[in-house]
Design brief:
6-stranded mixed beta sheet, 44% helix, 3-stranded antiparallel beta sheet
């Protein structure tokens, strides 16, 4: 594991966001007991805000999006991140922070890089007057091919879910810290199972660490994962079957008519 625990150094006397969130006001040291930790809870509980601040404090890159240090919409995350005290077992800058909304920007960025390299190759070929043309384009072609091999030549032609999963397959490559905010957003149940398989494989092979905010009872079913429930501004460790996500999903599937009648 990369992170052993995190908590607040001190809490400013402020009612401004995010310091007015009950979660932040009550935040004590959070001890991570496993390579896979889930943050669960209702919308607005503060999961995303806490993950963004943790990503800033650990200085890991944002996959497909603007760095938190530069993003004007991440001022709250920066302010909270400065107050976080992170205890490491070993420091690592490998890994990434990802949000579902960053995927579209990631796809466009990769496609633009591939298109730009293709255009550069074409311009060299069109204007070449002598010497070894293959040598002149060798390294540019190799760079383009590396991107294609890793991410695919036409990511945006795939369904959103397929591309999103390929995004994870291409980026989760070795030991590191991976902080994810609702990775299930674009994934079908079958693709969520594929993501589970990938996460478990990287933990086993590389001792990678994953901290994930999720609403998916499928993804949070990973065996041995630590589940931290945020409710009424407090964090408590619970089991998978104790989560509201599991209980409501199971009750609904067992008897959907009861729920639908009450809507």
């Amino acid at each position: 594991m990369t992170i052993e625990s995190f908590g607040l150094r001190n809490l400013p006397d402020s009612e401004a966001f995010p310091f007015n969130l009950p979660l932040i006001k009550n935040l004590e040291t959070v001890k991570l007991k496993n390579n896979i930790t889930f943050l669960v809870g209702e919308n607005g509980a503060g999961k995303s805000t806490l993950l963004e601040a943790l990503a800033y404090a650990t200085n890991i890159p944002v996959a497909g999006g603007m760095a938190i240090a530069d993003d004007p919409l991440m001022q709250a995350a920066r302010e909270l991140g400065k107050m976080l005290s992170v205890r490491y077992t070993q420091k690592s800058n490998s890994g990434f922070f990802s949000r579902a909304e960053d995927f579209i920007g990631f796809v466009k960025n990769i496609q633009q890089k591939i298109a730009g390299l293709s255009q550069e190759i074409q311009e060299i070929e069109d204007n070449w007057t002598g010497g070894d043309l293959n040598l002149a384009t060798k390294y540019i072609k190799a760079e383009r091919q590396a991107l294609i091999d890793r991410y695919g030549e036409d990511l945006d032609a795939m369904s959103h879910g397929e591309g999103f999963l390929k995004f994870f397959l291409g980026r989760i490559t070795g030991k590191g810290l991976y902080i994810m905010d609702e990775p299930e957003a674009a994934l079908s149940p079958q693709r969520q199972l594929s993501l589970i398989s990938l996460i478990m494989q990287k933990v086993k092979e590389n001792d990678s660490q994953f901290i994930i905010a999720s609403h998916s009872p499928i993804i949070m079913a990973i065996p041995g994962a630590q589940i931290l429930n945020i409710e009424e501004g407090k964090i408590t460790e619970i089991s998978w079957r104790e989560t509201a996500h599991y209980q409501i999903t199971r009750q609904f599937l067992d008897n959907p008519e009861v729920y639908l009648r009450e809507l």
